[in-house]
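Summary of Year 1 activities. Much of the first year was spent building the evaluation harness for sequence design. The harness presents a backbone, in tokenized form, and records the residue chosen at every position. We chose the following record to illustrate the format because it has been used consistently in internal testing since the harness was completed.
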């Protein structure tokens, strides 16, 4: 077998193909390095006064989209260039792809809708990588956003890939800041003025704690008496924190309130049922309705009527 034609072809076209591949790899690393820098400068200039965490989320999201889009473009150009270098006429192929694209377009309307919704999500900055959102009925941490789909990971560690066309309403729990919104119940016999003073003091101490102060924007305070429950009185507590910090702050606040309530002797109620055997004792609450029900049904008394014996006739 004569290898000379193959060797000659490789010597003629091989370096060009390797050069195209090398250029594509170099462009990939350039995109990975320079796109985040350019995007960060642009985003920082347009988001003056915004928190650093919000700027970072926006930068990561846009950088990821631009890099992926750029790599798709570079990959397509590289493939067509290598095919042309192989001596294959790409003009008929391009014409065929155009006709096939029209046919595929009719059957890929959902894909077009995915991309269109993805562009709007990115332009409007509805959410980004690192946000906690609820979309299409699923809540979780955003791990990736592209023009076609959004990837969420929930608290169970399950990864959800949601097409952007399925997103009708996007709820962002960590947009620039978050809120502490919780209820604490106390017993009906407690002095509410004293309880509110204790809760506000604990919230202020938490906000002044050096370990927690960077996460808290506004100290948690009692807003109002929120509800008269079956077992206790519910007090509404509100505060403001940085993004993703509201759950940690609420957990620490509950822990501190439990300790202080134990020290102050403040009762935290819980649902309970009182069972009475026999007669129900009188309850000193005006307007209460009592009803005594028998625990057992009385046994039927035997009939005291004597049976008469019927004698046969004489």
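For this record, the design step produced the sequence shown next.
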């Amino acid at each position: 077998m004569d290898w000379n034609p193959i060797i000659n072809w490789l010597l003629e076209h091989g370096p060009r193909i390797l050069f195209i591949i090398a250029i594509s790899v170099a462009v990939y690393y350039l995109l990975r390095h320079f796109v985040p820098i350019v995007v960060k400068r642009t985003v920082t200039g347009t988001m003056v006064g915004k928190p650093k965490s919000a700027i970072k989320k926006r930068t990561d999201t846009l950088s990821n989209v631009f890099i992926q889009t750029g790599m798709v473009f570079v990959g397509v150009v590289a493939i067509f260039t290598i095919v042309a270098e192989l001596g294959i006429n790409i003009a008929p192929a391009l014409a065929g792809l155009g006709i096939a694209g029209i046919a595929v377009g009719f059957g890929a309307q959902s894909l077009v809708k995915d991309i269109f919704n993805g562009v709007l999500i990115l332009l409007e900055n509805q959410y980004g990588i690192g946000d906690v959102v609820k979309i299409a009925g699923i809540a979780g941490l955003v791990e990736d956003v592209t023009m076609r789909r959004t990837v969420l990971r929930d608290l169970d560690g399950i990864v959800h890939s949601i097409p952007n066309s399925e997103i009708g309403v996007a709820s962002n729990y960590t947009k620039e800041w978050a809120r502490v919104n919780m209820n604490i119940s106390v017993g009906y016999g407690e002095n509410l003025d004293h309880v509110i003073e204790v809760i506000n003091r604990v919230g202020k101490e938490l906000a002044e704690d050096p370990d927690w102060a960077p996460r808290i924007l506004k100290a948690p305070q009692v807003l109002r008496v929120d509800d008269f429950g079956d077992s206790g009185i519910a007090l509404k507590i509100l505060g403001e924190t940085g993004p993703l910090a509201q759950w940690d702050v609420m957990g620490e606040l509950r822990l501190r309130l439990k300790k202080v309530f134990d020290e102050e002797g403040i009762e935290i109620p819980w649902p309970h049922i009182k069972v009475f055997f026999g007669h129900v004792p009188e309850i000193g609450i005006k307007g209460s309705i009592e009803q005594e029900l028998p625990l057992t049904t009385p046994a039927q008394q035997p009939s005291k009527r004597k049976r008469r014996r019927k004698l046969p006739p004489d």
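Confidence is low (pLDDT under 50) at residues 284-307. Quantitative recovery figures across the full test set are reported in Table 2.
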